């Protein structure tokens, strides 16, 4: 039974990759995503390869996956791809507790994130 399949709302000149459950806060992940938004795919990969942020490696994997999806599933030209969107969302938050003074407790929040990378093929200059 189940629901009917939902057609994707993507154009024919773009491809995407979604990474769920990244172990970092959305705020920190968004700093890395800001550095690649709007860049050509090659420049974005170079930016992520030399970034000092820990999560940049995972973002690089997601971008490589989006590029591979564009090439293999949508037959797009890899040389004309650019990062159209790099959006970050909240996943779940693990809640942990630590004992503090006078019988109190300190709550520790361990956030997880979700990342969506969309690459789009540039139109040819007329």
Main sheet: which strands, in order across?
1-3-2
CATH architecture: Alpha-Beta Complex
Question: Hey, roughly how much beta strand do the residues contain?
Answer: 35-45%
Whole-number total of structural domains: 1
Specify the CATH homologous superfamily: Ribosomal protein L22/L17
Task: Spell out the helices and strands N to C.
Answer: EHHHEE
Q: Stretches where pLDDT falls below 50 for ≥5 residues?
A: none
**Secondary structure tally: strands:** 3
Q: Rg to the nearest angstrom?
A: 18 Å
What overall geometry do the principal axes of the alpha carbons give?
flat
**What is the distance, rounded to the nearest whole angstrom, between the alpha carbons of the first and last residues?**
49 Å
Helix content: 25-40%
CATH class term: Alpha Beta
CATH topology: Ribosomal Protein L22, Chain A
Q: Residue-averaged pLDDT, rounded?
A: 94
Q: What structural class should be given to the helix and strand makeup?
A: alpha+beta
Put simply, the count of helices is 3
Largest sheet: 3 strands, antiparallel
Offer a quick outline of the entry.
The chain has 3 helices and 3 strands.
Which characteristics define this entry?
3-stranded antiparallel beta sheet; 3 strands; 126 residues; Ribosomal Protein L22, Chain A; alpha+beta
């Amino acid at each position: 039974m189940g629901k009917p399949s939902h057609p994707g709302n993507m154009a024919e000149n773009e491809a995407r990759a979604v990474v769920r459950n990244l172990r970092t806060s959305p705020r920190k992940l968004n700093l890395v995503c800001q550095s690649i938004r709007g860049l050509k795919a090659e420049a974005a990969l170079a930016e992520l390869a030399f970034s000092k942020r820990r999560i940049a490696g995972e973002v690089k994997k997601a971008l490589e996956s989006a590029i591979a999806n564009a090439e293999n599933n949508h037959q797009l030209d890899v040389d004309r791809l650019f990062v159209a969107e790099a959006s970050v969302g909240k996943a779940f938050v693990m809640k942990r507790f630590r004992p503090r003074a006078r019988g109190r407790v300190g709550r520790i929040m361990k956030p997880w994130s979700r990342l969506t990378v969309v690459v789009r093929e540039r139109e040819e200059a007329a």
